[in-house]
Design brief:
The chain has about 230 residues and is an all-alpha fold. About 75% of the residues lie in helices and about 0% in strands. It is built from 11 helices and no strands. The chain is globular and about 65 Å long. The N and C termini lie far apart (about 45 Å). Belongs to the PER33/POM33 family.
Amino acid sequence: QQFLLANKLETAMWLSRLFTVYCSVLFILPFLGLQEAANFYQRALLANALTSALRLHQRLPHFQLSRAFLALALLEDSCHYLLFSLIFVNSYPVTMSIFPVFLFSLLHATTYTKKVLNAMGPSSLAFVRTFLDKLATNQQSILKFIACNEIFLMPATVFMLFSGQGSLIQPFIYYRFLSLRYSSRRNPYCRTLFTELRILIEHITMKPACPVFLRRMCLNSIALVSRLAPTGA
């Protein structure tokens, strides 16, 4: 208890991340019914928005109403996911959009959970420590999976628009979010996965068995995405 009270901001972020994980699980596995699952979807995104806002305050404690401060804030991953939460919180529930929130909260809660366990005792809750160690071992794979979700949510927002489940402005705002993730200083996985996907598609389409129209469509798509990529990233 003394450890938690001595680190109030870190503790608040830890609790909000655990709440995000809890709500995400109850949305992905709707034990309480589909109507309640939709409510847990919103709660997970709102909790993630709170965590992101607290983290952004920690990174940039002195708020200024200026263009320079906004540019600085947009460089922070926490700002990206604050924007992400605002994009999807009032939209039709999309399972793909909850996975990045769920997995980031789970990963970021790991370090502080270990500190809490150490404060409780060196051998406390051994099964939780084992789970946390497995998470840390698979962190790179989890971050790649998150980046994959971030990328494929772009066409998903367009599909939602044409199916009547999204708004006209959502794909444009999400494109801005994806641009920020592509340019992220702390997390290169989105940019790396874009490169890996381009190499994979080019390799497949260059095979003689690939139809010409499909090859042309894929290469044109790659050219379009390359033009839309942030300059200097």
